[in-house]
């Protein structure tokens, strides 16, 4: 996910309580590539969601953390972004 992926924050409010999430998204215009990424993630035990045959998401927070620990983020800039967003997320917990 280093070149075609993104790490992004998401905030939701439920019953007046704010919840913060860090999500991963892989995007490609190649349907076979997108399908392959989703399949490989499933084979590794993840439960990705696919959006519009172009995007593969990891949204479950336990899975995002597992991905970072087991698969890793090769780009130093993206790893730093993940760390910053993780701190943002945990600042409210």
Features:
alpha+beta; 42% helix; four-stranded antiparallel beta sheet
What is the β-strand count? Answer: 4
**Contiguous helical run count:** 3
The third-level CATH topology is Endonuclease I-creI
**Count of structural domains:** 1
Strand and helix order: EEHEEHH
- Biggest β-sheet strands, sense, barrel: 4 strands, antiparallel
SSE blueprint:
Elements lengths: L4 E10 L2 E11 L3 H13 L5 E3 L3 E4 L2 H11 L4 H15 L3
Antiparallel strand pairs: 1-2, 2-4, 3-4
What does this structure look like?
The protein has helices at residues 31-43, 61-71, 76-90, and strands at 5-14, 17-27, 49-51, 55-58. The chain is α+β, with helices and mostly antiparallel strands and 93 residues long. The protein has a single domain, classed as Roll (Endonuclease I-creI). It has a four-stranded antiparallel sheet with strand order 1-2-4-3. Strand 1 and strand 2 form a beta hairpin. It starts with a strand and ends with a helix.
Question: What is this entry, summarized?
Answer:
By secondary structure, this protein is of the alpha+beta class.
């Amino acid at each position: 996910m280093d070149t075609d992926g993104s790490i992004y924050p998401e905030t939701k409010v439920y019953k007046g309580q704010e919840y913060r999430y860090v999500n991963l998204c892989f995007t490609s215009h190649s349907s076979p590539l997108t399908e392959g990424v989703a399949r490989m993630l499933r084979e590794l035990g993840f439960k990705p969601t696919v959006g519009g045959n172009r995007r593969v998401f990891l949204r479950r927070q336990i899975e995002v953390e597992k991905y970072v620990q087991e698969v890793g983020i090769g780009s130093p800039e993206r790893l730093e972004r993940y760390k910053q967003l993780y701190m943002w997320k945990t600042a409210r917990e």
